[in-house]
Structure formats: C-alpha cells, structure tokens
Amino acid sequence: MKKRLSSVVIASTVLLGTLTAPMVAMADNYDTQIEQKNSEINDLKAKQSSAQKQIDELEASVAKINKQANELLDQQATLQDESVQLQKDIETLKERIAKREETIQRQARDVQEKNQSSVFIKALLDADSFSDALGRLKAMTTIVNANNDLVNQQKADKKAVEDKKAENEKKQAEIAANQAKLEEQKGTLEAKQADLNVLKSTLAAQQATKESEKEALNAQKAAYEAEQARIRQEQAQVAATRQAVAQQASSSQASASASNTGSSSSSASVSTPAVSIPSTPAPAPSGNGSAIVAEAYKHIGKPYVWGAKGPDTFDCSGFTRYVYLQVTGRDIGGWTVPQESAGTVIPVSQAQPGDLYFWGSRGSTSHVAIAIGGGQYIHAPQPGETVKVGSVAYFAPSFAVRM
C-alpha cells in the first residue's frame, strides 16, 4: 500500500512540474508577441500621420489646379466675347465700305460722263459778281473736300478692317493656347487625383490589415488566458490529490483516478481570416465606327463644362473618352495628350467615322472631336456651347488618329 501511495505522489509531482514549465514559456512568448504588435501599431500610427500630411498636400494641389483652371476658363470667356465683338465690328465696317464704295464709283462716273471740271469753271465764269464767284468757289470746294473725306474715310475703314482681323487672329491664337493649357491642367489634375486615390487606398489597406492583426492578437490572447485558467485549475486539482493521498491511501487512489479521468486537456484554435484575391475583369468587346458615331449623336445638345466626363455634361476630351468607354469599354485617357497615343496617327483626309480629330501640335493639343464622315465631326466645343456637329471646312483639325 505504501509503495502504491509513493507512486501516486511521485506521479502527481511530475505532472505538476510538467504543466508549470510550458505555462511560463507560453506567457513569455505571448508577452513578446503583444509587445511586437504594439510596436507595429505605433509605427502604423506614425505612417498614417505622415500619409495624412501627403494627402493634405495633394488635396491642396488639386484645389490650386482647379482654381487655375477656373481662372483660365474666365479668360477664355472674355476672349470669346472679344472675338465675337471683333467679328461684328468687321462685318459693320465691311457693310459701310461696300455702301461708300458704291457712292465713290457713282461720283467717279459722273465726273467722267459730265466733265465736272468744266462745269466748275463755267460756274465761276457765270457768276454775277465777285462775291457770287467766291460763294460758288466755296460751294465747289466743299463738294471736293467732301469727296476727299469720303475717300479718306474709305481708306481708314479698310485699314480698320485689316487691324481688327489681325487682332481677332491674335485673340483666336490666345484662345487655342489657353485651351491647350486647360487640357494640360486636366492631365496634371488626373495624375494628382490618381496619386491621392492610391495613397488613400494604401492607407486604408494598411489600416484594415493592422486592425485584423489586432483582432487576431486579441483572440489569441483570450485563448491563452483561457488556457492559463485551465492549467491553474488542473494544478489545483493535482495539489488537492497529493494532499488527499498523504492523508488517506485508499481514498486518494479513487480521488486520483477520478481526477485524472475527469481532467482532459483541450486546445483553443484561432482561425485566420481568408484573404480574398480580386479577379481581373474580362476585357470588354471592341466597338466599330458606326457604333461610336451612333453613341456620339445621343449626346447632341448637352452642355460643355470643363473637366466634365458625362453623362450629362462634357468637355472635349471628356466627351470622346465617355463615348469610347460606352461603345468599346476601353479607356482612351482623360485628356487630349494620352488620347493622341491611343491609336495610329493618320492624315485628316484619311479619317473614317469613329476616328479622332485633334487640333494643335502633338503633345500639346488643345481640342479633340469624333469624325463622323463627310468632313464632319461631333465635339464639345467650348464654355457656353453644347455638343454639336462641326465641319473641317470651318474649323480644320491638325491631324487624325485611327482608333
């Protein structure tokens, strides 16, 4: 009996030592992991602060670009008004010149047919007195001066027409330069916005990852604490068993057997959240020229708004981009310069329906339209106008791109 009692006591002691050692090791391990996660979270907070500063700078840059674009649009509207007024002035001068030219030609015919110089001499010779002669001379001088004034005014008006034409051409050049700058601003704006979106997405992904890791860590910690509680319970049971064995050999054997049978170790498992990998969408089918033209016609009459990408308002490159997205599913770029590279450059004379027309030099184009055939195109022209049909005969493009 004493031998069996000693065996039970020895077994209980060994079991107690076996349970205590892993518990200490596991505590140290989790404390280290928790400290490491706290350090990672603090690092992330520092990165978030730095990233937010970059976001603020990018948003300020975007706001500045939009302000500059609005200033350019105001200048564009002023230039357009001035150009329209110059056109009206030129037309008025042309009408005045045409009427005056008719009067001058009629007077020239009268002089030639009636020999007006002889008439003037006869009028002087027929005067009744010297004062009468002076009066007739004054009247004839007035007529001659009036004719001279008429001719001089005609010359001045013709020069005014040429000056206003030159001034209008200068205004049109400024308008084209401003439009090119607006397109360039839009490209810069899109790049800044893309950087901003990437930065925000990266920050959100990092935040989500760290939050997930933090939740997993909390779950592991809870499981660890539950395991510690179970181990402490088993230790208490073992200690009670040792004490009972020392007092009563027969009852300790039954108690130890019941305790060993009733105590079963359990393990906690921590699930790792699955990572979903987004699938790459299948490319959309390509359209054709007639489909593109048909889509473009759907938007006739919609207002021009700088930077607008549809479907209710457009600017020139926003319109072409939207039409191609609807028909082909292909993004040809958000402003004129990337759209130039979306296909093959061809002469304007070879453009087919669905091709793109561009105005300006490659790399700094100011306008884009969709060819519809017959030397015509559909485009979103400028502020104050709507999507409409235009003709190369009145506003000729610089080159075309086969899409």
From TrEMBL:
<feature type="signal peptide">
    <location>
        <begin position="1"/>
        <end position="27"/>
    </location>
</feature>
<dbReference type="Pfam" id="PF00877">
    <property type="entry name" value="NLPC_P60"/>
</dbReference>
<dbReference type="Pfam" id="PF24568">
    <property type="entry name" value="CC_PcsB"/>
</dbReference>
<keyword id="KW-0175">Coiled coil</keyword>
<dbReference type="InterPro" id="IPR057309">
    <property type="entry name" value="PcsB_CC"/>
</dbReference>
<keyword id="KW-0645">Protease</keyword>
<protein>
    <recommendedName>
        <fullName>NlpC/P60 domain-containing protein</fullName>
    </recommendedName>
</protein>
<keyword id="KW-0788">Thiol protease</keyword>
<feature type="coiled-coil region">
    <location>
        <begin position="27"/>
        <end position="114"/>
    </location>
</feature>
<dbReference type="GO" id="GO:0008234">
    <property type="term" value="F:cysteine-type peptidase activity"/>
</dbReference>
<comment type="similarity">
    <text>Belongs to the peptidase C40 family.</text>
</comment>
<keyword id="KW-0732">Signal</keyword>
<feature type="domain" description="NlpC/P60">
    <location>
        <begin position="286"/>
        <end position="403"/>
    </location>
</feature>
<dbReference type="GO" id="GO:0006508">
    <property type="term" value="P:proteolysis"/>
</dbReference>
<feature type="compositionally biased region" description="Low complexity">
    <location>
        <begin position="251"/>
        <end position="279"/>
    </location>
</feature>
<keyword id="KW-0378">Hydrolase</keyword>
<dbReference type="InterPro" id="IPR000064">
    <property type="entry name" value="NLP_P60_dom"/>
</dbReference>
<feature type="region of interest" description="Disordered">
    <location>
        <begin position="251"/>
        <end position="288"/>
    </location>
</feature>
<feature type="coiled-coil region">
    <location>
        <begin position="151"/>
        <end position="244"/>
    </location>
</feature>
<dbReference type="InterPro" id="IPR051202">
    <property type="entry name" value="Peptidase_C40"/>
</dbReference>
<dbReference type="InterPro" id="IPR038765">
    <property type="entry name" value="Papain-like_cys_pep_sf"/>
</dbReference>
